[in-house]
Design goal:
Elements (H helix, E strand, L loop, with lengths): L3 E4 L6 E4 L5 E3 L6 E3 H12 L15 H13 L3 H12 L6 H11 L4 H10 L2 H39 L4 H22 L7 H67 L2 E2 L4 E2 L2
Antiparallel strand pairs: 1-2, 3-4, 5-6
Helix pairs in contact: 2-3, 2-4, 3-4, 4-5, 5-6, 6-8, 7-8
Length: about 270
């Protein structure tokens, strides 16, 4: 009688069985299995499509769980994928696909999971994952830098638009406090009891005048700096968006890489038969 393809429920080994029998022993792990269940297990792994209700772990081998998890990820079902990955992680915590799956299920910004995946991935793929970790770090730094520049831009706008006419009068008063006491001292009869208050008035006048003059210079400088800061922000935002697009393209290529290791047809969303 022709043999039927099946899969051992214990070790996941691909086997061929006589469907007329009720039970047999796996040639790989020497574990007894029910023939009908082994056949169904093989069909479950090799005929998973988008509309089928997936088994969340019962009766599935570790390899089947991680395969199913990435199918869920491909179909944007991160909740079901997370359940599969958690079940697989208890068995194979050193498999890079576990950490990569957690990266996809979380928010695709989890550098810790991505770095853990890079540590156990194949060498060529590990380098790409490490580069992605560095890229995400640079994206965060770029975002913070842009926000800091935007805060500076808002402060410059506020300072330029702020109206304090009293500063002009303060400057004029300060100038008067310098000129008038100085004139009295120069044309007076020498040092007298009024000399000390006059000197104090002159010092206060200098402080008031130069404080007002310094504000005037700062305002002019802010008006000159604002266009430069705005142009810099625009340029950095363009770079930031480019980094985001690069990250998204890398995320897709990583998913394709893993799915190809499962001989997965991404165009149809199911395993090869």
């Amino acid at each position: 009688m022709p043999l039927t393809k099946a899969q051992c429920s214990n070790c996941g080994g691909a086997i061929e069985v006589d469907s007329s029998k009720e039970a047999a022993i796996c040639p790989f792990c020497n574990t007894p299995y029910i023939v009908e269940k082994a056949i169904n297990l093989y069909k479950t792994e090799n005929h998973i499509v988008n509309n089928i209700t997936y088994n969340n772990g019962d009766g599935l081998t570790p390899e089947q769980r991680i395969k199913n998890a990435f199918i869920f990820i491909w179909n944007n079902d991160n909740r079901s994928a997370g359940e599969m990955i958690d079940a697989y992680m208890r068995l194979r915590p050193d498999d890079y696909r576990v950490w990569l799956g957690k990266y996809y299920c979380k928010d695709k910004w989890d550098r810790l999971s991505l770095d853990s995946a890079a540590k156990t991935a194949p060498p060529d793929f590990s380098d790409r994952l490490h580069q992605q970790v560095a890229l995400i770090t640079n994206i965060f730094l770029k975002r913070d830098e842009i926000q800091k520049c935007k805060n500076e831009e808002e402060n410059l706008k506020w300072f330029i638009k702020s109206k304090k006419p009293e500063s002009v009068f303060v400057g004029m008063i300060g100038l008067g406090m310098i000129i008038i006491p100085a004139y009295i001292l120069i044309n007076g009869d020498g040092f007298s009891a009024f000399s000390i208050p006059l000197f104090a008035t002159i010092i206060g006048g200098f402080i008031m005048f130069f404080s007002s003059f310094n504000r005037f210079l700062r305002k002019r400088k802010s008006a000159n700096d604002l266009p430069k800061v705005s142009a810099y922000i625009k340029d950095e935002e363009s770079k930031y968006l480019g980094m985001i697009k690069e990250k998204e393209a890398n995320d897709k290529s990583f998913l394709d890489y893993v799915l190809q290791t499962f001989e997965y047809e991404t165009s149809r969303g199911n395993y090869d038969n």
